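Entry:
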Amino acid sequence: MNNKEMKILAKANKTNEQTVINIYIKSTGNKEDTMKVMEISYPTPLSTLSDIENDNIDVSIKLEDGTNITVVVSTPQNLIQQMNNENVNFISASQPDIIVRSLTYENIQQAIEDYANGDAFWLKLLYVASIEKKVVDMSRINLFLEEMNRLNNELLE
């Protein structure tokens, strides 16, 4: 993450008889880390979609650092249709789509630019994890979760 450090900030709030622990992860990196989206292209033109509120589409993205990413952009209605088609009440674990209300150029651009915030972390993570799960270091994630649990336990003592 461009030599950024992450700080874990914990805050305990007492509400009635319940203690709520809020864990905040704060980037100490600089705010100028937002990655610029240089190009958004559509292998399938949006004009060919029959229902822009119930569909999904592949979108190709070129970032200012030269990274090329392909993501799936879906609508909520399309996700519901997928559950209905598969006769399930949930979306199975898979590569997460970027969700927009309707498949318009403006909505897709806004969503992609939002995902590009913070050095395009979410865009890059979604993309690489969709290609090879092993790129995500689960041992580091587990260590981080253990540290969060330790902090929570200390706050509750």
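Residues 107 and 124 are 20 Å apart (CA to CA).
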